[in-house]
Amino acid sequence: MKAIRTLIYPEAPKILAAAIIGGISSSMAVGLLACSAWLISMASLQPPIMVLEVAIVAVRFFGIGRGVVRYAARVIEHNSALRALTSIRVALYRIIENQLPAYFSLLRRGDLLRRLVSDSEVMQDLWLRIANPWVGALVSGVAGLGIIAYLLPSLSLVLSILFVVAMFVIPFISFFFSTNEEQREQEQRIFDAIVQACDSLQESLIFGYQNRIRGDISAAQNQLNKFDARSGLASGIALFAQHVFIGAAIVISAGFSVTAFHNHSLSGVNVAVLVLLPLAIFDGLTGLPAAFARLSTVLNSTKSVDALLANENVANPEALEPKLSIASIRFVEVQPSLPGIEIAPFSGLVTAGEPLLVTGKSGAGKSSLLNAFIGFLDYQGSMTIDGVEARELASSDRIELATILLQQDHLFATSIRENLKIGNPEASDEQLFEVLEAVELGELIAKVGLDTHIGAYGHNFSGGEKQRLKLARTLLRDKPVVFLDEPFEYLALDQVDRISKRVNDRCRDKLLIIISHLPLSLI
């Protein structure tokens, strides 16, 4: 888990400090019980009030201080945990955004979502609900045993052995009976089924297979319930073991205390202290059964996230100096590389004012040519940008040279304005309406307003309107290369003719490449 350790290392001292402070809080509970027991026993003898004053103040101190210290520990540990989680998720996203599309084809549906959301969230339990409580229980236990050692050393030795055994036996029982990789597989099934159900909601209703999807989710959940029941059983067994240890400790304490009292080696007021202290000493172990029952799940999630974090990106070639303008792009026998698929070679030249139209039947590799240009696919042949082979440019630099409309471009669930300004965050409303007019959406958007919410995936608009919104957003980005993949999908032929000519006019000083199954007239 080297990658995760590197990310959480800056927060490790605070996490450890929070664990120790939490232990101090539990130790104050030990002190509270010890002082209370002594105070009650001593008060029964009706001594002068001054004899009880110190114990009274101590009870108040431990009672109030316990909550204050515990609150401080919670603030520190959760603040550190959230900072560490932020670092991990940002690192995950940076790695993901640098991966080529071929990488994602190797992942199961929902796997990426699970790693980003569920696994990264669950792995916090490793220090928040497992390591920190265990350290806190150890600190408070040592404090309680220290009091017993001061009052009756012989008893402290026996209870110390019992406490150490409990510290390891209880977590081991929980972990041994906890769930394993099979549970993770069932969780993956649920993620896959939910993602598929969301993606295919309309189709499932139309073709009537929603019951099958619900059945898959229900079957996976039922199996997952069995694993949860097993974890619950493990927690129950461990909790039973904890009560056995507590009961044994109380009985042993009572026996030793009574014997010591009869031998005049222990005062009577301290008998209650020794008998009750095991309750506080072993109380820190209460949360460990449930926590360690999830240890297997937490470790699996941690390994999953670490595997993604440790995924080294293919080193990009050294980037060249960015250019404000490009004179030409030449394709010579370019064949995008797709596993098991052979694509016919493509040759062509595009210069400013001379757009390149790429046509062909479905499956001919038109969109793959775009993916090869922006570095999402490797290619054979030669693709030069002003004489420089594209391979010599980093993928991010190639993307920076162009404004690109993908065949399945995404519309975000926000306003029209915000979707358009992704192309140019500095664009004014006048500029937005100018490009909307070019794609024949000016009148519609003027009626509904730029602040209209387009809905998830743009469902408030028709297919043609969504396509033109995407095209408008692409045209707002001022780059020397304009690469459009099926920009006129869902549009009527006469509208395609008008808009394509406007697009060509806007890109007279740029390199325009259009992939289309339609025979366009750009003049």
Q: What is the N-to-C order of secondary-structure elements (H for helix, E for strand)?
A: HHHHHHHHHHHHHEEEHEEHEHHHHEHE
Mean pLDDT: 85
Strand order of the largest sheet: 2-1-4-5
Number of helices: 20
Question: What portion of residues belong to β-strands?
Answer: 5-15%
The Rg value, from CA coordinates, equals 34 Å
CATH topology of the largest domain: ABC transporter transmembrane region fold
What is the CATH architecture assignment of the largest domain? Up-down Bundle
What is the H level of CATH, i.e. the homologous superfamily of the largest domain? ABC transporter type 1, transmembrane domain
Describe this protein with a few key phrases:
523 residues, alpha/beta, ABC transporter transmembrane region fold, Rossmann fold, 2 domains, 4-stranded antiparallel sheet, 4-stranded parallel sheet, 20 helices, 64% helix
Walkthrough of the structure:
This protein has 523 residues and is of the alpha/beta class. It folds into two domains: 2-309, Up-down Bundle (ABC transporter transmembrane region fold), CATH 1.20.1560; 328-515, Rossmann fold. Helices cover 64% and strands 8% of the residues. The protein is built from 20 helices and eight strands. It has helices at 2-8, 12-43, 49-97, 101-104, 111-122, 125-151, 153-176, 181-199, 201-207, 210-262, 269-281, 288-293, 295-309, 366-373, 395-401, 416-420, 429-438, 442-448, 463-476, 493-506, and strands at 328-336, 346-351, 356-358, 379-385, 388-389, 402-405, 481-485, 511-515. The strands form two sheets. It has a four-stranded antiparallel sheet. A hairpin with a 2-residue loop joins strand 4 and strand 5 (388-389). Helix 6 runs antiparallel to helix 11 (269-281). The longest helix has 53 residues, at 210-262. The two termini are 59 Å apart. Residues 313-320 have low confidence and may be disordered.
